[in-house]
Amino acid sequence: DAKTTQPNSMESNEEEPVHLPCNHSTISGTDYIHWYRQLPSQGPEYVIHGLTSNVNNRMASLAIAEDRKSSTLILHRATLRDAAVYYCILRDPLEANFGNEKLTFGTGTRLTIIP
Amino acid sequence: DGGITQSPKYLFRKEGQNVTLSCEQNLNHDAMYWYRQDPGQGLRLIYYSQIVNDFQKGDIAEGYSVSREKKESFPLTVTSAQKNPTAFYLCASSIWTGGGSGADTQYFGPGTRLTVL
């Protein structure tokens, strides 16, 4: 599996934008980039995913570098409810084709929002 | 509301006892998964099932068993053979596209925190 590298922790002020980085230098051409987040004592929650182009949804934006070796999850205006562990995960459809549908979670980035 | 339910939220058992964790979904998803999370760690896959009456071992299946008799249900049994069963257990489901797209997302339940005394 291609690996991802994220900072262990980040802090941001409430109502300011947050940029969460993820490095994936060994990404293959078919890997999708997924982001999930996990609030304290809850199950993970899907945030966003993309392949090559930048993506936007109601929760966040995903900016993917041109060489795809890194990506950034952008929360446009952080609230206290965004305090969570954010996971950057690569998913290979070729692996999925052989039944390997697992999500490989690392330790993620713990985001703290300062009021 | 569609979603995944896990029960109970907290579970305490004595060492050596088998225990079954419940997972139910009404999202009409074909695929279901069980993960284990230890403090400060990411999730690790225990078992997954793509269709009824079929399931596959994940990375840490030893000491666990599952069944998939109904599409909506995927119970996990933690047996006495599991050496360190105290953990946070998470169930998830997703659409199964057969060929796998890499874009499928997984929906997680609220988790069951198991403590073995």
How would you describe this protein?
The complex is a heterodimer of chains A (115) and B (117). Chain A contains one helix and nine strands, in the order ββββββββαβ. Chain A has one helix spanning 93-97, and strands spanning 9-13, 18-23, 32-38, 45-50, 55-56, 61-64, 70-75, 84-91, 109-114. In chain A, strands 1-9-8-3-4 form a five-stranded mixed β-sheet. A four-stranded antiparallel β-sheet of chain A has the order 2-7-6-5, with no helix packed on it. The longest helix of chain A is centred in the last third of the chain and has 5 residues, at 93-97. Chain A is globular, with a radius of gyration of 14 Å. Helices cover 0% and strands 48% of the residues of chain B. The chains are: A mainly beta (115), B mainly beta (117). At the A-B interface, β4 and α1 of A face β4, β5, β9 and β10 of B.
Features:
heterodimer, A: about 120 residues, mainly beta, five-stranded mixed sheet, four-stranded antiparallel sheet, 1 helix, B: about 120 residues, seven-stranded mixed sheet, 11 strands, about 0% helix
